[in-house]
Amino acid sequence: EDQVTQSPEALRLQEGESSSLNCSYTVSGLRGLFWYRQDPGKGPEFLFTLYSAGEEKEKERLKATLTKKESFLHITAPKPEDSATYLCAVNSGNTPLVFGKGTRLSVIA
Amino acid sequence: DTGVSQNPRHKITKRGQNVTFRCDPISEHNRLYWYRQTLGQGPEFLTYFQNEAQLEKSRLLSDRFSAERPKGSFSTLEIQRTEQGDSAMYLCASSPPGQGVKPQHFGDGTRLSIL
Question: What's chain A's average pLDDT?
Answer without folding.
Answer: 96
